[in-house]
Write a structure and sequence with these properties.
With about 150 residues, the chain is an alpha+beta fold. The protein is built from one helix and ten strands.
Length: about 150
């Protein structure tokens, strides 16, 4: 092969590979976004809206089966920080810091449980487009509990 042919081949290869990179990134982005949307918790007492927050995934309470207690909006009464106990549960961000690992799992996140006032490390796995498995744990996933959420 002469020099011109090699140069043209190399330039063509760069264009082909360079053109494929955005497509690969788009596929990863689409897979990562599969978790976005509203999910009914395992107990069926609330819905969590999972959304993008910067380059991570977060979740907030978007619906409560019982939004009121004694005629007033439910509040975060079990929060360990006393000054936060009057914050309404509706709209509260309870999930933060999840990142997509490229394998239908989002990890590195934290989830707050308003029923106990505790915060746990957590990871999410998309079992199928309609089923999300959320595992909250202390220290390592082995010491935790998995809850199944549905769309």
């Amino acid at each position: 092969m002469n020099t011109i042919t090699r140069t043209l081949l190399a330039v063509s290869l760069l264009f082909v590979l360079g053109g494929a990179a955005p497509l690969i990134a788009q596929e990863d982005s689409t897979a990562a976004n599969a978790v976005l949307g509203e999910w009914l918790t395992g107990e069926g007492t609330s819905k969590i809206l999972i959304y993008k927050c910067d380059n991570e995934f977060c979740g907030k309470i978007s619906w409560l089966k019982e939004p009121e207690k004694d005629g007033k909006p439910r509040v975060d009464e079990k929060n360990p920080e006393e000054h936060l106990r009057n914050i309404p549960l509706m709209g509260m961000v309870i999930m933060k810091g999840f990142t997509f690992d490229g394998e239908e799992t989002w990890k590195g996140g934290k989830i707050y449980d308003p029923k106990s006032g505790n915060t746990y490390s957590a990871k999410m796995t998309l079992a199928n487009p309609q089923t999300l498995e959320l595992r909250g744990y202390i220290l390592v996933p082995l010491f935790g509990r998995t809850e199944t959420w549905t769309r």
